[in-house]
# Entry
Amino acid sequence: MALAFATVCFGKDIKTVVLKTQPEMHCTGCEKKIKDNIRFEKGIKSITTNLDNKTITIEYDADKTNVENIIEGFKKINYEAAEVKDNQNKE
# Structure
């Protein structure tokens, strides 16, 4: 029984993507709008925002969605989102 449960729990392909938006997320109002709306997109597991560097980190189930679908979700709330590549995020 425990083995079956472990197989179900560990069978998910959870991935992480870091995004920036246009217009930029610059206040708690923007942060709330993004969190309140994007969390309903299929496959989203968690959303973490960082106002200092204006990024959104999203954990998602890759079996249910992908980065392109997540970016499309931002368009529904009038934001253009783009993935932050590793070298762009380092300062």
Summary: Confidence is low (pLDDT under 50) at residues 1-7, 87-91. The first helix runs from residue 2 to 10. The CA atoms of residues 24 and 30 lie 8 Å apart. The helical segments are 2-10, 28-38, 67-75, 86-89.
